């Protein structure tokens, strides 16, 4: 059958008897949009699978964290944080006081020991003193005798030069002078011996023994008190201050995290099957969370890690064996683009 078309319809297909006719262009557009959505829904799992296979077998990407190998400073004993002298990010020098802790029990013990020692020393000072009067009188008498004999000896020497004194008489004076000097020396020795004996008696007494015992306890307490001052172990900076003023802490609690001024690096955790790609001096690409990329180099021999750090673990993920690889940045890393423990990806 032959179909004939009217000329007017051919020229104006959207007009019929002077009225505009709409043939549903919008509906056809909606059909296309739904078709594309269905097509994307079907293809997306395939694309995701291809991407996963590409990463697994073409690219090797391992999780990692940026770190400067910080040190955690812990509480040496139970106590209260009395004061904090620095803030996060502050530069530190070795031995700098960071945190001051207090322990009321330790303070009371030190105060008690010092009070008791002061009382014992006062008692020891006022204890019975040895009578040295006779020994001092003996020394004085011997010195007076020596003075007189010295004067006689000088006269004899003058007379001897004039030939008025015999050798026998002069020898007798010399013997008397020597005996007088020995008498003074012996009297002084006796006095010193008495003093030494008195000191030994005091040192061996009950008060002296108790004093030594309390001194030893005080030294131990003061040494323990000194550990309440938390100091920086080296030059560096404060990564994080965890403690708060007034906080009650127990022995072993982390108070602060400090690090050296060394350039940060990446610790990445690689599956054992990729061990060949983690050779020393191998080149890698470090990918930051914001997409920034930097070149790096494997700088340390491989170690075995039993688990991932908390920043990289996923819920319900079991323990796996990983190769712990240290990666150094080829360029200096600015401080404003990283923080301690920031998760990154390392592409081998």
From TrEMBL:
Coiled-coil ranges per UniProt: 110-159
Bilayer-crossing regions: 35-54
UniProt KW keywords: Coiled coil, Membrane, Transmembrane, Transmembrane helix
Name of protein: HlyD family efflux transporter periplasmic adaptor subunit
Species of provenance: Vibrio sinensis
């Amino acid at each position: 059958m032959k179909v004939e078309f009217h000329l007017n319809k051919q020229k104006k297909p959207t007009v019929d008897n002077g009225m505009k006719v709409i043939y549903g262009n919008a509906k056809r557009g909606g059909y296309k949009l739904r078709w594309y959505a269905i097509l994307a829904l079907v293809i997306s799992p395939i694309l995701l699978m291809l991407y996963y296979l590409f990463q697994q077998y073409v690219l090797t990407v391992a999780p990692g964290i940026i770190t400067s190998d910080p040190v955690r400073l812990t509480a040496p004993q139970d106590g209260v944080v009395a004061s904090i002298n620095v803030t996060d990010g502050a530069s530190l020098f070795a031995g700098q006081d960071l945190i001051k802790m207090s322990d009321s029990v330790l303070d009371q013990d030190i105060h008690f020991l010092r009070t008791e020692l002061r009382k014992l020393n006062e008692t020891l000072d006022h204890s019975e003193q040895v009578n040295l009067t006779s020994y001092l009188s003996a020394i004085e008498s011997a010195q007076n005798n020596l003075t007189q004999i010295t004067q006689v000896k000088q006269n004899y020497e003058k007379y001897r030069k004039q030939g008025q004194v015999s050798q026998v008489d002069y020898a007798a004076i010399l013997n008397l002078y020597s005996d007088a000097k020995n008498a003074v020396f012996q009297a002084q020795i006796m006095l010193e011996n008495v003093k030494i004996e008195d000191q030994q008696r005091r040192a061996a007494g009950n008060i002296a023994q108790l004093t030594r015992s309390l001194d030893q306890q005080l030294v131990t307490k003061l040494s323990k008190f000194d550990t309440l001052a938390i100091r920086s172990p080296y030059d560096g900076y404060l990564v994080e201050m965890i403690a708060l003023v007034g906080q009650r802490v127990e022995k072993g609690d982390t108070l602060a995290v400090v690090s050296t001024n060394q350039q940060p690096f990446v610790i990445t955790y690689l599956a054992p099957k990729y061990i060949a790609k983690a050779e020393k001096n191998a080149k890698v690409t470090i990918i930051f969370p914001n997409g920034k990329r930097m070149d790096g180099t494997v700088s340390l021999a491989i170690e075995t890690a039993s688990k991932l750090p908390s920043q990289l673990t996923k819920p319900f993920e079991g323990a796996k064996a990983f190769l712990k690889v240290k990666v150094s940045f080829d360029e200096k890393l600015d401080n404003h683009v990283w923080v301690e423990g920031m998760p990154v990806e390392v592409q081998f």
